């Protein structure tokens, strides 16, 4: 069964179009852009023209919606070219899903048409300096005043695209005294303005090009209608639903990085000769390639399985967690083996392999660490009474 067998003809065209964009407009320039620390403005604009930022937005709001398996394959293609480009639309898609599932009619009308074209780009702000994956330990607080406005104070960190996004889905406490803590958490839809400072871009091992920043809220005022869905205390459950999409997106990014590393390794192993024959004929190298291809295929099928389950309307926190866990660990191993296959050249910045090796670790810790994914998986295993086969 081909990975695209369950796509419509239009969706296959979407994937091919993104693949062509990556081959023509991304891969030839990515090394120079990354090494210069240049923001990929031209590539982001082309993604807007291709409709990539509207893949999760319904047609009534100007989007070009696709199935979740199609979205996974589009994300894989982008990450195959440059993982940072896939990251540029990851949080954006999660916010679009949050608005679709939970937003008020006015919130949808205000934001989704602009998000469909990329005129409005969105991100989510979850992580805090002292909290990491423990989202219930939030310290960012939104206090409601007599006039109905919320005054927000707190700090968020590792927020991708936050400098260039116009909309931020902010996870914060609207009732710090609530017990249990998750009942006091809300999502506020905030925009740049007085009281919100993007304090700095964080230095990173990989994931270059797009920014990951610290956000500081000091007396920021948000209107009452900024609460996602219009009701306080629903934010934790809302964001957990959104993270199902987010984790599938991270899994798909890992597929793209792993696939790029495998493709480069296979090409190099066919061209490079030692001891009178191409190096893939040496069993040690051939074994690496065989294992890389096998694990990547398994990771893709697991991710597509979770994507199909999501489209069937099922809860997929366990399935998305499995996909994110396995695909990210697979990408890391493939990236390491790609360095082995390339030998000394794998350590050179003149080859893309070293970039894959720097980008792969992000998927292990991003969107909830893999240790957290294991907690989610085992908790669901117990609640469901095992795997549903």
Question: How would the blueprint of this fold be written?
Answer:
Blueprint: H1 9-26, H2 30-36, H3 41-49, H4 68-81, H5 83-102, H6 105-117, E1 122-125, E2 141-144, E3 150-160, E4 167-173, E5 185-190, E6 196-201, E7 212-222, H7 235-271, E8 273-274, E9 277-278, H8 283-311, H9 317-342, H10 353-365, H11 370-384
Word description of this protein:
The strands form 3 sheets. Strands 2-3-7-6 form a 4-stranded antiparallel beta sheet, covered by helices on one side. Strands 1-4-5 form a 3-stranded mixed beta sheet. Strands 8-9 form a two-stranded antiparallel sheet. Helix 7 (235-271) packs antiparallel against helix 10 (353-365), helix 9 packs antiparallel against helix 10 and helix 9 packs antiparallel against helix 11. The chain has helices spanning 9-26, 30-36, 41-49, 68-81, 83-102, 105-117, 235-271, 283-311, 317-342, 353-365, 370-384, and strands at 122-125, 141-144, 150-160, 167-173, 185-190, 196-201, 212-222, 273-274, 277-278. By secondary structure, it is α+β, with helices and mostly antiparallel strands. It folds into 3 domains: 9-121, Acyl-CoA dehydrogenase/oxidase, N-terminal domain (Butyryl-Coa Dehydrogenase, subunit A, domain 1); 123-233, Butyryl-CoA Dehydrogenase, subunit A, domain 2 (Beta Barrel), CATH 2.40.110.10; 237-384, Butyryl-CoA Dehydrogenase, subunit A, domain 3, CATH 1.20.140.10.
